[in-house]
């Protein structure tokens, strides 16, 4: 089985960034996803350039923080933040023209860092939301970059990074028997979503998922990779 261990939220905070770097240099994480409206983006880019073996993709955002563009009013609330949340499935369809321009801005901001763009995924997996997945497909083809597997995109294998996404290494699923769980999945290529971090005060302010990130980091640094697994980027 070929496995990608990807760390989400690179650049969210300095502690998250440092944790992801450790999970790569001392552990099994092979790639990460940079969130362009995070609090430590410049620091994350600096660290990525010091560790070129860590592949970096883009964590597209529509459901957290502020947009990069200021002319996407239909995507924002009265405080200038994205109005969409992790319950977006129950929300009205976004203004698709504004969404595409915002996501292009996020991609172009990434490209301007001069880091190679390895892949696309998104916060809360919103890139697979049915009303907007057409934009995801268009951008993947426009920038010639693979996209994180989501069931709603399974018919577009030509753009997918793997055949399956494992989301079980999260919350109560953060356990040392991770590879035993992966072995039960019948697939050839799989991405494991992870969120390692060194918890800092900024992270505590921004995310309800904090303490468990250090548990993830400890496991990702200590876990043994069995011989039936090939780590890929």
UniProtKB/TrEMBL annotation:
Origin species: Gracilibacillus halotolerans
- Which GO molecular function annotations are given, in alphabetical order? deacetylase activity; hydrolase activity, acting on carbon-nitrogen (but not peptide) bonds, in linear amides; metal ion binding
UniProt xrefs under InterPro entries: COD_ChbG_bac (IPR022948), Glyco_hydro/deAcase_b/a-brl (IPR011330), YdjC-like (IPR006879)
The alphabetized UniProt keywords are: Carbohydrate metabolism, Hydrolase, Magnesium, Metal-binding
Matching Gene3D superfamilies, A to Z?
Glycoside hydrolase/deacetylase
Top-rank lineage group of the source organism: Bacteria
Protein name, per record: Carbohydrate deacetylase
Q: Give GO BP annotations, semicolon-separated.
A: polysaccharide catabolic process
Tell me which cofactor or cofactors this protein depends on.
Answer: Mg(2+)
